[in-house]
Amino acid sequence: MRITIVSETYFPQVNGVSRTLSQLVRVLTEAGDEVQLIHPDYGEPSRAVGAYRVPSVRIPFYPDLRLPVPPYRGVRRAIARFRPELVHIATEATLGLAVLLDASARGIPIVSSFHTNFDQYSDHYRVGWARGGIWRYLRWFHNRTRETYVPSRATILNLERRGFRNLVLWPRGVDASLFRPDRPGRAQLRRALGFSEQDVVIAYVGRVAVEKNVEYLAEALAEAAQKSSRARPLIVGEGPARPVLEERLRGVATVVGFRSGEELADHYAAADLFAFASRTETFGNVVLEAMASGLPAIVLAEGGPAEIVRHGETGLAIAPDAPPGTFAEALLALAEDGPLRRRMAENARDFARSQSWERIMGALRDRYAAIVEADDPATLEPIA
């Protein structure tokens, strides 16, 4: 097949969308498909072979992000030259809209995916006044594609209530050979970070930003560390809220900044627990990476993480409206109970190993093929 994938975020930006799409491109390419990836130009060569990079500009209030700049005449010419059999639009802003209109006019089958909890993002960034218009646009956008791939059942229910159609569950996978508890650098890294074998390291991995509920998490981590000298928070990530987080956890947490690849896997393995308080996740890739690394996960029971973590088996899912003190109590319960923590760690690892990228992306590829061949993809086995 010849597949065009369009996204307003990709590597070197590191987030759930870029990680997911890179795995999709890999699996399609290994299956013999020709893939055209269209994404913003980040000033360096793309990781994807044959990618078309769109001129972009930095966002003043969020310099880590870049926005593609219209008009998109070059994008339309690139798609025309490539002659895709199917277009997958992963983001719905100006680039995604331009491709939706162009591919529709050419009669190319289009699918889309939904990645972002716009309700809570609009609250965090104080644009709640625009929420109604945003949802009307998103419904209009996705209902003009053959299928919309959604990472969690909770998100599907939310979208169905809003009038979205043709929604298909598309969960995420994990590389359990990279993210694993027996990383050879684990002991050395713990020593380098100042942790002893008796310490219980509580890791957070992700963007350090308000939409990740990091202030709530900081309160919970600070309380846990105050009540137990063995509880040692480890923060892995960058973002605009890092100064606030560092100030709140000064003298309490070890903050190492952004890590990726083997280094990131070593940092997961150096921990004993995973703490994640975000309420805006449609899935939560880092939760699954942590579980593959043998970490019981403590999360708020909302959105994607609530579907990944089995409460009492692979971690703990705390009521989303619970105060930080309740979250801290959950952290301390596992920090102080070694046998329970190790049992949950084994369960978490077993679950994560069942969630391979090859299986999940292969099932999505089958849906692509059914659409290209003018079959009914609804007759296929679910992706989950």
UniProtKB/TrEMBL annotation:
It holds the Pfam family Glyco_transf_4. Keywords: Transferase. Residues 14-177 form the Glycosyltransferase subfamily 4-like N-terminal domain. The keyword Transferase applies. SUPFAM superfamilies: UDP-Glycosyltransferase/glycogen phosphorylase (SSF53756). CDD domains: GT4-like (cd03814). Residues 187-350 form the Glycosyl transferase family domain. This is Glycosyltransferase family 1 protein. It comes from Tautonia sociabilis.
